[in-house]
Write a structure and sequence with these properties.
Blueprint lengths: L2 H18 L5 E5 L7 E7 L9 H14 L9 E4 L3 H13 L3 E6 L4 H9 L3 E5 L5 H12 L2 E2 L2 H8 L8 H8 L10 E4 L5 H12 L5 E7 L4 H7 L31 E5 L1 H15 L5 H19 L4 E7 L13 H6 L5 H13 L8 E3 L2
Parallel strand pairs: 2-10, 3-4, 3-6, 4-5, 7-8, 7-10, 8-9
Antiparallel strand pairs: 1-2, 9-11
């Protein structure tokens, strides 16, 4: 057996052992008094060891790269990321004793930068978010390392049929609920890997469950879903960290999605604050986007006289955004006035009132 094959086998064993030490994430019910007969749950991915949904992705990417022979002992791992994936990959790189370099937009929150450093990773910041890919490729060439490229490999690295993926976990946890087969699964797109897993799984298992993808305001995913134009580009990145992209990523698979919306950033942040109040702890901005998606799905169910359950993804905790999304000075500097929108989200969730205008939708 070659030294590379032997090292890779040991690396896979280490990752699998780490997985066996980790419990599954919780499914948290959230009452919606404004929508009787509809049960909402949040799949709380913040309870992973690295605090976000991206822990699943990072584990899958490392296993995929190892099984393909792409990782080598002592060689750096490089990733283009807005933060959460890099944090999780830094964790797994440290587990395997590999150097890690995160290529990130300069506007990424300091809390995320600090967490990458905590796991022993380095951070390479770029002013233009669209350059994170080219910079990652350059660093991989110059260091002899491997560019993990989550935006290309997310959908294929995850085993969507079984192996305790997020979709299988959700259905297992709902078994004894009033509505064990959800009407809707709601997720926002970063790489597109999670929506691909959800959509493929419900198709494979022949569930009638629909998948709603909730996009950020500064992102091309919704427009690609609507137009089919894979060449769409933006000259700026998303303000909701972890979701929304300035280009159409290879891992985003529109054909496995049943409906899509685009949520204004201010409304995502308002929903984030409302959800934090309801849960008694901070959550990230993408969880607010997903709450809006869940409320849109609930409104549609009411209109068609449908009862049932909805599961949305709680992507990460909010401590990473203490100096941004939860800081009044930062919100003011960005031009966000959230008080009225927070009240509007509350009115929808608690009294069934319509959400504010500005949400774009397709086939919901």
């Amino acid at each position: 057996m070659s030294d590379l094959r032997q090292w890779s086998r040991e690396a896979i064993r280490i990752i699998e052992a780490d997985f066996q030490r980790s419990a599954d994430t919780h499914l948290i019910p959230l009452e919606l008094p404004g929508f009787p007969g509809i049960d909402l749950y949040f799949k709380d991915e913040s309870s992973h060891p690295t605090g976000s949904l991206k822990h699943r992705l990072a584990r899958s990417l490392f296993l995929y790269a190892l099984c393909n022979g792409w990782l080598k002992q002592g060689a750096p791992v490089i990733e283009a990321s807005s933060g959460s994936t890099a944090i999780s990959e830094a964790y797994f790189a440290r587990l395997l004793g590999l150097p890690f370099i995160a290529v990130m937009p300069a506007a990424t929150s300091q809390e995320k930068v600090d967490q990458i450093a905590f796991y022993g990773g380095q951070v390479h910041l770029v002013q233009d978010p669209s350059q994170i890919y080219a910079e990652s490729e350059r660093l991989a060439r110059e260091t002899g390392g491997h560019f993990m490229d989550q935006f290309t490999y997310a959908e294929r690295a995850t085993d969507w049929r079984a192996n305790n993926n997020i979709a299988e976990s959700i259905f297992q946890q709902l078994r004894f609920e009033t509505h064990p087969e959800p009407a809707w699964l709601v997720s926002s797109p970063g790489t597109g890997g999670t929506t691909a897993t959800l959509g493929r799984y419900v198709g494979y298992r022949q569930h009638p469950t629909r998948v709603l993808c909730a996009d950020a305001e500064r992102s091309v995913f919704f427009d690609f879903y609507r137009s089919g134009d894979a060449g769409l580009l933006l000259d700026h990145g998303s303000r909701i960290e972890g979701i929304g992209r300035p280009r159409v990523e290879p891992s985003f698979l529109p054909n496995v999605i049943d409906a899509m919306i685009k949520v204004p950033d201010a409304l995502s942040l308002a929903a984030m604050h409302y959800l934090a109040q309801r849960l008694g702890r901070r959550v990230g901005g993408s969880s607010g986007t997903n709450l809006i998606g869940a409320l849109m799905a609930a409104q549609q169910m009411v209109q068609t006289g449908e009862t049932g359950s909805i599961v949305a993804i709680l992507c990460d905790g909010g401590d990473r955004y203490a100096t941004t999304y939860y800081h009044p000075d930062w919100l003011k500097a960005q031009g966000f006035e959230l008080a009225g929108l927070i009240n509007a989200v509350a009115a929808c969730a608690e009294r069934g009132e319509a959400l504010p205008e500005g949400i774009l939708r397709e086939r919901i």
